[in-house]
């Protein structure tokens, strides 16, 4: 896994996402130009990860469930800097890899809901809080809002081809309370803080885009 691999992934993402859909990117300037940061993304479509890879202003290393790493797709995803994670337990290799991305000043992408669903940030896993508090990296909330129209949806889980998809970046924020504590109580408090920020950003993004 290398930062250069993620840069290649970004170029591929740009070509695919802008070729197959019509992304409208708002607030990309809010992503820090340098240094570690975490993109916390809502998750409703299978294209959410690739969409962020193609629209974010910096290369992104996503934590992706290991079930996706099958056949030739596995080596390809690893080659473009994506991280395989076993969601059935504490995956030490994935945790180490994610922290290394942040230590190297890279961008880590996380779907804090853990799986594709309503995309409303209603239920967050503790992983995001851990990475943010442990690394001190700011979190940038991201709302991916696809077309709600059903017509033209050729593949389940994907918005219709050539439909508009809005990607809205929010203001970066710190998850921790500034104490540096990594106790269970501190992580629980950070998770609540994160959920409030992400929920508020999603609501703002919907108002801004009319989605």
Give a concise summary.
The chain has one domain (3-209): Glycerol-3-phosphate (1)-acyltransferase (3-Layer(aba) Sandwich). It is 38% helix and 17% strand. Helix 3 (73-79) links the parallel strand 3 (60-65) and strand 4 (83-85).
What can you see in these coordinates?
- With 211 residues, the protein is of the alpha/beta class.
- The chain is 38% helix and 17% strand.
- The protein has a seven-stranded mixed beta sheet, sandwiched between helices.
- Strand 3, helix 3 and strand 4 form a beta-alpha-beta unit.
- The model has no long low-confidence stretch (mean pLDDT 86).
C-alpha termini separation: 36 Å
- Poorly predicted runs: none
Shape: globular
CATH superfamily: Glycerol-3-phosphate (1)-acyltransferase
**Number of domain modules:** 1
What does the average pLDDT come to?
86
Q: Supply the CATH class.
A: Alpha Beta
Largest sheet: 7 strands, mixed
Query: Which bin fits the share of residues in helices?
Result: 25-40%
Q: By helix and strand content, what is the structural category?
A: alpha/beta
Please provide the count of β strands: 7
How many helices? The count is 6
Compressed to H and E, one letter per element, the order equals HEEHEHEHEHEEH
Strand % is 15-25%
Keywords:
211 residues, alpha/beta, Glycerol-3-phosphate (1)-acyltransferase, 6 helices, 38% helix, globular
């Amino acid at each position: 896994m290398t930062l250069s691999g993620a840069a290649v992934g970004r170029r591929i993402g740009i070509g695919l996402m802008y070729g197959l859909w019509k992304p409208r990117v708002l607030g990309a300037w809010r992503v820090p130009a340098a240094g570690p940061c975490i993109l916390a993304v809502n998750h409703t479509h299978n294209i959410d990860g690739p969409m962020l890879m193609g629209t974010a202003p910096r290369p992104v290393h996503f934590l992706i469930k290991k079930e996706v790493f099958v056949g030739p797709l596995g080596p390809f995803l690893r080659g473009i800097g994506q991280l395989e994670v076993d969601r059935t337990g504490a995956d030490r290799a994935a945790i180490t890899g994610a922290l290394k991305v942040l230590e190297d000043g890279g961008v880590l992408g996380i779907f804090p809901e853990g799986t594709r669903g309503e995309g409303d940030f209603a239920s967050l896993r503790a992983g995001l809080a851990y990475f943010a508090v442990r690394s001190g990296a700011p979190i940038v909330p991201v709302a991916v809002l696809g077309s709600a129209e059903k017509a033209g949806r050729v593949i389940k889980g994907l918005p219709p081809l050539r439909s508009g998809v809005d990607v809205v970046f929010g203001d970066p924020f710190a998850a921790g309370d500034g104490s540096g504590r990594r106790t269970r109580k501190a992580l629980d408090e950070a998770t609540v803080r994160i959920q409030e920020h992400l929920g508020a950003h999603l609501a703002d993004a919907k108002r801004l885009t009319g989605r």
